[in-house]
Specification:
Layout lengths: L14 E5 L42 E5 L6 H6 L1 H19 L12 E4 L3 E4 L2 E4 L5 E3 L4 E4 L2 H8 L7 H20 L15 H19 L17 H13 L2 H5 L13 H14 L13
Parallel strand pairs: 1-3, 3-7
Antiparallel strand pairs: 1-2, 4-5, 6-7
Helix pairs in contact: 2-4, 4-5, 4-6, 5-8, 6-8
The structure holds zinc ion (ZN).
Length: 291
């Protein structure tokens, strides 16, 4: 997925969160082998999921910096950080228009933070090990951009630009679900292919597909198109990311559908395509018997 070189990004939509000097120094530094908890990939991160070490509002301090270096579509094409800003600029424009079509009349922009190693969030302290996640307590998306390298090397996704944007669009989808009051349904503790948790994940995949199809119609603050139309090769790129994080793919030969929390590779790809072809209004994964 390619941004138009001249398009203007809105760097205020994404911030890099750093721990203040002296706090947590050395933790999560180079040499630490990060083991991703597969079942939590791209997950809805709730309080119990992240480590209890952080004390929101106290204990540790962090600084947030806007990504002022990310100003144009050209920047978004060249660096992962600026690609995140481009994604946020486009997703926010898309959802401002699409939210009312699915009954969300008071859409607000989520927070979006990049971090390295570990970070404090409204859901507690989180490390890279949890993968990208959405925290409903502070309505914010958290991504360690090192995850994208892992997506490629560990899970065999192509890891290309659209795969990276898919991750953001999926987490943004959880924010939409949170505002709709649907996200909390995933807290019932159930697992398996038809569980509420899996339906919530598949809906986020579907929302990601809906945005992908509409992305070339999203505009920068001056009305210029942000993205070039998506190509078939790029769709395959996004589908490879969706497949790579399917529960069956992650579990391998020991795949046990009763424990699924995010859905199979087939389910995740199919719902991405459902959104891609039908838009956000086609994404009600609770309306069908078997999603
Ligand atoms: Zn998710």
């Amino acid at each position: 997925m390619t941004f138009n070189d001249g398009a203007r990004l809105d760097p205020s939509k994404v911030k890099r969160r750093r721990r203040a000097a002296g706090v947590g120094a050395g933790a999560g530094g180079l040499g630490v082998i990060v083991i991703f908890l597969a079942s939590q990939l791209l997950g809805v991160d709730l309080t119990g999921l992240v480590g209890g070490g952080g004390v929101p509002g106290g204990g540790t301090q962090s600084e947030d910096q806007a990504l002022e270096q990310c100003q144009t579509g050209e920047d978004a094409n060249e660096s992962v950080e600026c690609r995140m800003v481009g994604a946020a600029t486009s997703l926010d424009d898309y959802w401002a228009e699409a939210a009312p079509t699915i009954g969300l009349t008071d859409y607000v922009t989520p927070g979006f933070f990049l971090f390295s190693g570990s970070t404090d969030t409204g859901c507690g302290s989180a490390t890279s090990a949890v993968g990208p996640f959405y925290c409903p307590a502070d309505t914010s998306i958290y991504i360690d951009t090192g995850f994208y390298e892992d997506l490629r090397t560990r899970y065999g996704s192509s890891g290309g630009p659209l795969a990276q944007l898919y991750v953001v669009a999926h987490e943004w989808g959880h924010h939409i679900e949170n505002q709709l009051g649907i996200l909390e349904r995933s807290r019932d503790g159930q697992t398996g292919p038809t569980s509420a948790g899996v339906r919530v994940e598949l809906m986020a995949d579907c929302f990601a597909g809906a945005w992908t199809a509409a992305a070339s119609g999203t505009e920068d603050p001056s009305g210029r198109p942000l993205l070039e139309p998506v190509t078939d090769a790029q769709i395959r790129d996004a589908l490879s990311a969706a497949a790579a994080v399917g529960d069956d793919r992650i579990q391998g030969t020991d795949a046990n559908s009763h424990t699924w929390t995010h859905g199979s590779s087939e389910q995740r790809q199919r719902w991405f395509l459902t959104g891609y072809q039908g838009g956000a209004t086609a994404c009600d994964t609770f309306a069908v018997e078997v999603p």
